[in-house]
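chain below, 306 aa
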Amino acid sequence: MSTLVFGHKNPDTDSVVAAIALADLKKKLGEDIAPAAQGALNPETTFVLKKYGVAAPQVVTSYAGKDVYLVDHSDLAQSPDDLGQANILGIVDHHKLGDVTTGQPLECWIWPVGCTCTVVASMYNYMNVEIPKDIAGIMLCAILSDTVIFKSATCTDADKKICEQLAKICGEKNLDALGIEMFKVKSAVEGTPIRELVFRDYKDFKMGGKGVGCGQLELVDLSIVDGIKAALEKDIRDLKAEKGHHTVLLMLTDIMKEGTELLVASDDESVVEKAFGVAPKNGKAWLPGIMSRKKQIIPFLEKVFG
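prediction:
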């Protein structure tokens, strides 16, 4: 039985590509291992894999009894429901350490960088394993996506340095153009069900014993969602009721203006003002300079919820 490596629920490009790349690295180091994903791939990830000719990982929803590596998460809320019945061999991530626990020591690479693929690429270098051209291409795209073409507050010099290395391997010359090409795909909303858009990059959290959900749509222009904004607002209210959450937020991030319009569904909207210094009006708040859920949204909410 192969070991499986997988990212979080509602997989984004980093969680899928990191799983593919880590599986490739571990296989070259002698492990019987395969990448997996907890759900269907989003349009950006599909575009990236197709661009470099890389097969999509299998979708697996049950991991009981399997040996596993986690990438791009270590929170139970973002893990399979039966993770407690799996044997966790390792975690590779770039978020804060979550509430996943293990019964034995494990391999753990958790770095304060902008993307899990920055860590995985560094593991190739550390293990002295050559990075294949196609894997370099998809990891480069994952880093550009997660760091919003180096504009995000999460971006570090390590991310930029790894991107230089990966670009040389895969032959990409213009990283800005590549990033914009990806974000145009990511921005596409026409014909997509509203709930699918809310879940395109969505995560659940426990804060002070309360459920908090936060999704993000990264757009090249906020006007792209003008015609569906009311439907998005209604859907996060519906989602909040379905999950029994205290708060559900949807970040509409304009990557060109470098700011986020926050859609708010909450039992107490004052948590937004306490966290970000802006009081929502009609369930919306504009947050200039806010690009990163991980670094600029979640830590401030956690302080408010205590």
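The longest strand covers residues 210-219. The mean pLDDT is 96.
thats it, cya
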